[in-house]
Amino acid sequence: MPGEYLVCTRARPGESPQPVAILHLEPLAREPLAPADWLHPVEQRTYDAQTRRTRQREFLHGRMLAKRGLAALGVATRAPEMAIQPGCFGQPLVAGDGLHGHGISISHAGPAWVGALAFREQVPMGLDIELISQRPGRALATRLTATEHALIANQGEWGATALWAAKEALAKLLRTGLSSPFPLFEVTGLTAMNGYCEVRFHFFPHLSAAVFHLGSAMLALAVPAAATVQADGYCYAFEALAAQLTSNGAGPAAPRCCTESR
């Protein structure tokens, strides 16, 4: 189901949770959106250059959701005055008045989901959504380490998709994409939490990913590992996000591959 979801800090005694990011999820729009309502002139040129109508819809819908998220975080700049442009690694960068210190991450999973995450730059994040299908499993088959094979043994495409989504989200947080050697993104831990799966990385112990089940897809958020940033107040309450996703009809939030692989 379409929705706006808060990613919050875990509350300290006597304090309320504070949102550090806003996640928007929707199916890809079937009805045409109005580009002039959402796109900066720079983005409009990229939109016009797309030769496929589906690609135009994905481009526009992702930016619409990202700008909604930025507005929900308190950015007052009008959507057409925000420019989301690719950096040297293709990572989305936001420019415009009042946007300093904010970042976004956008992901598409066929027509099923368009997702956009808006966050405060002091808490860098990455988002990826992957459809549960044979494609991620085949792509990963020759790239998994022995440790990763053991983690998802007998889990079929569920486990492979969870790993793929977590690695993609990590690569987006790092802003390099999967251009680095694939072993660098090795997963060494899958832990069942309350409504989601926590993924740990061998070469990035200071980072982690939370993976959620969206029915036909897996959603991963890569974040600084809470253990290293708790002193700054950034300990993430992903149980609350899992509850939001479940209550809004997005599907069961606990990935089967995680709950069966403790």
UniProtKB/TrEMBL annotation:
Residues 125-213 form the 4'-phosphopantetheinyl transferase domain. Pfam families: ACPS. GO terms for molecular function: holo-[acyl-carrier-protein] synthase activity; magnesium ion binding. Keywords: Transferase. Coiled coil: none annotated. This is 4'-phosphopantetheinyl transferase superfamily protein. It comes from Hymenobacter rubripertinctus. The lineage of its organism: Bacteria, Pseudomonadati, Bacteroidota, Cytophagia, Cytophagales.
